[in-house]
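Q: Could you fold this chain for me?
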Amino acid sequence: MNERGLQVGYPPLHVGEVCHAHVAVAWKHVVIGENGEPDVATWIAVDLAPTQTVRVVYPHLFDG
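A: Sure. Below is the predicted structure, expressed as structure tokens.
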């Protein structure tokens, strides 16, 4: 992460491979708690297991 945004590097794909990248984003007004730590509610909002992400993006794979 830098002033230009978020950069993620992936290794080169091999012939026949496909890359699917799923990005979840959450934001809110920063609130500092009593202990001086930032509120982590946005971290929790996007903390999904890969299987949960796939179920949301491709629900038809899990019908029936």
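A (continued): Residues 5 and 25 are 13 Å apart (CA to CA).
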